[in-house]
Amino acid sequence: MVDMLKGIAASDGVAVAKAYLLVQPDLSFSKVSVEDTDAEAKRLDDALSKSTEELQFIRDKAAQTLGEAEAQVFDAHLMVLSDPEMVGQIKQNISDNKVNAESALTEVTDMYIGMFEAMEDNAYMQERAADIRDVTKRVLAHLLQVTLPNPSMINEEVVVVAHDLTPSDTAQLDRNFVKAFVTDIGGRTSHSAIMARSLEIPAIVGTKEITDKVAANQMLAVNGITGDVILDPTEEQKAEFIAAGEAYAAQKAEWEKLKHAKTVTADGKHFELAANIGTPKDLTGVNNNGAEAVGLYRTEFLYMDSPDFPTEEDQYVAYKAVLEGMDGKPVVVRTMDIGGDKELPYLTLPHEMNPFLGYRALRISLSSLGEDMFRTQLRALLRASVHGNLRIMFPMVATLGEFRSAKALYTEERQKLIDEGVAVADHIEVGIMIEIPAAAVIADKFAKEVDFFSIGTNDLIQYTMAADRMNERVSYLYQPYNPSILRLIKHVVDSAHKEGKWAGMCGEMAGDQTAVPLLMGIGLDEFSMSATSILKTRSLMKRLDTTKMQELATRALDDCDTMEEVEALVAEYLA
Ligand code: PEP
Ligand code: MG
Q: CATH: 1.10.510.10, 1.10.274.10, 3.40.50.1220, 1.20.1250.20. Which one for 37-143?
């Protein structure tokens, strides 16, 4: 029987390849007594040297693909492996207690981990504990003769299958070999899904059970447009998927013809189509897809890709590169938005029950722990501002008080730089993301003080519907076209316009082909999305008339009770 799974279509494209399981193997073992302790010490030495060899390889690969700074984390692992004191203690444990290497190893490393973790306030010690935990896992895997998965070691065409992928796992995937990925959990707006779209890797998330159903090397056919995965496809099915992939490629080639075209509707109105980026490297995709601006630069990836807090100079270099790369076109840089599903290995945050509702983004920047980091970022941005058309925005603003505090720190740093004789741009627009319903509801108040709004629907929808954006079990409640969401958006856009300000959107909804006609009708000014959605959106806008879309939006807002009714109405207008 042919097995088929359905998940959430997260990144367009089709692939047929064998599965690479990015799943943690079982590392359980029993403590046993041994007679020949020399042989046991030799098993340990073998496992240590295989681990060293493997880590050295991963380190070199990381240095080539991600850069020297990222590779340094593996140096720390290599140091643990060659620590004579620790290795000596493990061997001592084997010979004194006549136990197997697995248990001697974990007894000693657990003691070190416990000792370092007890130093709760010391981030350096917390990192050492994490390093030892990682290294122990690797050595244990060699002792037990099981393989630890490692995306950077993939060197043939595969579909990666995982329970979940973190944004940093996703960043390590090599597009030349990873033809698609499929996960058990996640939603369309998880950051791994967003990154898949910018890397142009077809992806399906939230299948609930792919890791239970698929074995290593099993053949898979994956369609990231429909969300279908077929296990062990027949030759006929393979041909069908390959044909679907070719049709998608042909469609993309059609859209590409619009790369240098202006975004104008059938009745000649212009909308700004911008791209979302995570690193200066994404500019290639931005320019290849004919973006008119960068509407969201998620700067937290700069922090996540770095072994420690990036310095003011590191940040200045990155911001300058993006501003210059955009050649005078607008670039909206969002200040650091750590928290939720984005973590920093070197910043230990307290464990929280609800990280998306917790200590994150601007809340960190305005706290005593984050203020210096925030000031450093503002200085780097201000210094870079002379190299292009910079706009700054703050994430996760709930209250006017938060905006005023952030703006005050910005104004202070600006003044300090001017006093130091450093050049900064004369005028930089400072805006906020609208991601929290409280801010959306009083957008009329915010509009008097900010220069612009960018609506972050990825979060705004999850907070309005009380449906976790990462949780596939409640993904049916993640409803961009629900009239409640459309009303909030309209209120935000109207409030901005009343004060002569502009309103954009940088949540994934901005590139959603059902939402675009509605947003045009609502009067959104700027649409910022994964670069790979730009050309299809330009193509869609080209054939739509704004007066008709205004009528559509009014009918959706006034007459529709449910998301399904809105979808049906849009389909009627697009037919
Ligand atoms: C959003 O919430 O819509 C947004 C763009 O920010 P992020 O996806 O990074 O949370
Ligand atoms: Mg957000």
A: 1.10.274.10
